[in-house]
Amino acid sequence: MEDRLHMDNGLVPQKIVSVHLQDSTLKEVKDQASNKQAQILEPKPELSLEIKPEQDGMEHVGRDDPKALGEEPKQRRGSASGSEPAGDSDRGGGPVEHYHLHLSSCHECLELENSTIESVKFASAENIPDLPYDYSSSLESAADETSPEREGRRVNLTGKAPNILLYVGSDSQEALGRFHEVRSVLADCVDIDSYILYHLLEDSALRDPWMENCLLLVIATRESIPEDLYQKFMAYLSQGGKVLGLSSFFTFGGFQVTSKGALQKTVQNLVFSKADQSEVKLKLSVLSSGCRYQEGPVRLSPGRLQGHLENEDKDRVIVHVPFGTCGGEAVLCQVHLELPPSSNIVQTAEDFNLLKSSDFRRYEVLREILTTLGLSCDMKQVPALTPLYLLLAAEEIRDPLMQWLGKHVDSEGEIKSGQLSLRFVSSYVSEVEITPSCIPVVTNMEAFSSEHFSLEIYRQNLQTKQLGKVILFAEVTPTTMRLLDGLMFQTPQEMGLIAIAARQTEGKGRGGNAWLSPVGCALSTVLISIPLRSQLGQRIPFVQHLMSVAVVEAVRSIPEYQDINLRVKWPNDIYYSDLMKIGGVLVNSTLMGETFYILIGCGFNVTNSNPTICINDLVTEYNKQHKAELKPLRADYLIARVVTVLEKLIEEFQDKGPNSVLPLYYRYWVHSGQQVHLGSAEGPKVSIVGLDDSGFLQVHQEGGEVVTVHPDGNSFDMLRNLILPKRR
Fold first, then answer.
1. What is the C-alpha separation between 293 and 316, in angstroms, rounded?
2. Which is nearest to 584 in space by CA: 608, 600, 563?
3. How far is Cα 23 from Cα 29, in angstroms, rounded to an integer?
4. Cα(160)–Cα(448) distance, rounded to whole angstroms?
5. CA nearest 117: which of 537, 588, 447, 670?
6. Where is average pLDDT lowest: 293-302, 424-433, 626-635?
7. pTM for the whole structure
8. Strand 267-273 to 306-309 pairing
9. How many CA atoms are closer than 13 Å to the CA of 167, on its beta-carbon side?
10. Compositional bias of type Basic and acidic residues: which residue ranges (predicted)?
11. In whole numbers, what is the pLDDT of the chain averaged over residues?
């Protein structure tokens, strides 16, 4: 709950555990709480047993366009960006009485404390993306047959954005500082649009299913590695994992780390042999850790990279060690490639000058190592932020919108929220600085032009009553979710706010997780409001499922595109088949009085083949396999269709409950007959059978009982380590 939930006494819960209570226990709790104020929610209506037939496809707009579906003549194809995960809330089945928990965002606390309403986030979705290589996966052969081949890039089998995990030792301030040092230098080396760097804590390394979600494991600690953790790291290598050791005692394959005290913290010459066997001599440029590698009695064939000090003993300080039969390999270093010349362990000004003079070569060595381990080190500059443009999908709302703005902006033309100020201006000049906390909004639509977003295409394909009518568009913005924060409680519902971007620089997932947002993704955040006392208001976790289905249906309901194999993975991912992640959903919900105000962020790959796969890759492959001529799709076209489908699904859910949309959800989901383990990888196997009334997974146990399971809270894969609610 991210510190947003408080009990009556002000304590912040550290963990929320679901329980099933017997009737006697419920009565006891009720009796104990009888002297406290209670809020009685209306009993939920019985679910209709009538299953609605599958939806007809939406009317196809733009199918005869010359280049791409939804594309204007003489306009270049483009798109938007990637987003993420969603929200979940526990509800028990059947009518019950609910008693007050004080939320930091609740209306009562607002009145009592004169505080500002904060978002109540219903935690849900998996959002640290899985990684490209799973050498032990049985899907490899299937991928060879079914996954689109993209010349010049390695096929990503698990299909999620690649993570680099950094292990820096025990949880301490010193380790945290080391993490920031290592993260900083790696971020300077790799393509920031292709990788996310995460801190791997010891507990998480032992407990969570990180191996299949890790493209590169970086070990950067001088501490000895506990035996159980060492075995985990070796298991990762045996499955084809890649390891970079930076001044660590981690080693294997017959190599031993031996100390040579005279070298410690001294500047030394390094002779480094690159993968093509050419030598790069770094003059007086590396800081020694004081250790070297020596071969033991058992030897493995050395890899392509090598590095030794230019001294009498030619001490080996960089070794490249292949491991196993699945492609595992490690590059182990005993020179401080991770430390800048300004590090506090650099002892003299002379040493600083020597290291500084060859710092470029240090990066050259690091990039060579990372490239050998399969990473892309193509450097891309972070783009500058751009202004927002206020665009309208329907001209009839222009006058009401401008009147509303006139009443709500301050004397400087701004609307401010806790994190962001939007300054409304008629035009923009480049001299005006744009920062993540202050962004100009241009209200003159005639000044708008973009190769990534066509307002005309969006208008033609938006067929909603309310949603998506008022657009805030940016070429480059920190995150679309933040753009609507200051407007979500104030704008009239009929205005239907949506934020769209071509690229994000600070894409967010659940908690503190990052989200990759390169050009080519369709990125949007749409605002909806849901009455608390309604079918969907009593089942808010279903919002993420509706959005996921809306994305898939928006593509597969286009005539002739029904066989493009887009699917839904619980709880909030959009997948190509069951192989690769192509998008995700993030839902932030705020309950204010009797209304949920909900921001739904959604991003899915349309034209960008990296870092996983995109919809147009699937279209191209479909054309090749079936000798078809389906046109590539555009992001603006698909965003409009997604919002249209979403509004339709919400209306059906509000009218008839979950059973009105579940047939469509099950038609597209990837989990039919799938088996998962409870508790851990060694836990009992169960089969997924569907969703319960709150949107959680239901599984079938061997004994014949169908039960609901919940995620255990790990950040790597929501389908791993599922747990049964405790019973009392």
1. 5
2. 600
3. 10
4. 34
5. 588
6. 293-302
7. 0.64
8. antiparallel
9. 28
10. 43-75
11. 76
| Helix, coil or strand: residue 330 | strand
CA distances from 167 to 3, 154, 722 (A): 26, 26, 25
For 605, the 3-state DSSP assignment is strand
Determine contact, residues 615/555, Cβ cutoff 8 Å: yes
Query: One-letter amino acid identity for 678?
Result: L
Find the Cα–Cα–Cα–Cα dihedral 187, 189, 192, 198, rounded to 10°: -40
* DSSP structural state of residue 72: P
Q: Are strands 102-103 and 5-6 parallel, antiparallel or unpaired?
A: antiparallel
What CATH number should be reported for the domain whose range is 388-668? 3.30.930.10
Question: What percent of the chain is helix, strand and coil (3-state, nearest 5)?
Answer: 25, 25, 50
**What is the b/e burial string over 334-345, where b = at least 16 CB atoms within 10 angstroms of the residue's CB?**
bbbbbbbbeeee
CB 554 within 8 A of CB 644: yes
Percentage, residues of the chain above pLDDT 90: 27
Topology of domain 163-373, per CATH?
Answer: Rossmann fold (3.40.50)
CA distances 690 to 47, 54, 296, 548, 553, Å, are 16, 17, 54, 16, 19
Backbone torsion region of residue 674, taken as left when φ is above 0, otherwise alpha when ψ lies between -120 and 50, otherwise beta: beta
**Helix (H, G, I), strand (E, B), or coil: what is residue 452?**
coil
Work out the pLDDT band at 128, boundaries 50, 70, 90: very low
- Terminal-to-terminal C-alpha distance of the chain: 24
Residue 335 DSSP one-character state: B
